[in-house]
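Appendix B. Worked example

We walk through a single record from start to finish. Start with the input: the chain for PH domain-containing protein, Actinorhabdospora filicis, length 148.
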Amino acid sequence: MPPKYRVGRAQGSWAGEARARTRTAAFLTAAGACALAAALIGFLPARIVFALIAVACAVRAAAGRRVRLEMDLYSVRVRFGILPASVVRLPLRTIRSVHAGEARRGRALLRPGPAVVFTLVSGRTLPVSVPDPEAARVAYERIRAKHG
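Next comes the structure step. The output line below is what the pipeline stores for this chain.
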């Protein structure tokens, strides 16, 4: 999904989204196989174990498949996964610098590679996977200039 500028909210808003290129079908196949094994096995503890594995595989297939980065005049929001609690909100005053680069590990990384990296006033960093990290950095600088 290409980055887009929203007109309805605050001018200067920016949003970008990255999707993972992992094997979702493999997790769904494993979930189906475990669910089938749980239904066919007569031994109760084994049924429970297979049912729990099936649920874990299904949740893994659904969660964490995308990261969405939203910026407006007041804050930067990073949404990852499908759960509403998986949102990180950073007020602009807590961000010291932003640069586009390569990242290997991070909470909002779908895969090692290109990311926009937020350095916070506290010294912590938050790398975020986006398709075009340089466009995200430029959008942040433009928004920061409007904010003052």
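Two observations about the output. Confidence is low (pLDDT under 50) at residues 1-10. The helical segments are 24-40, 44-62, 133-147.
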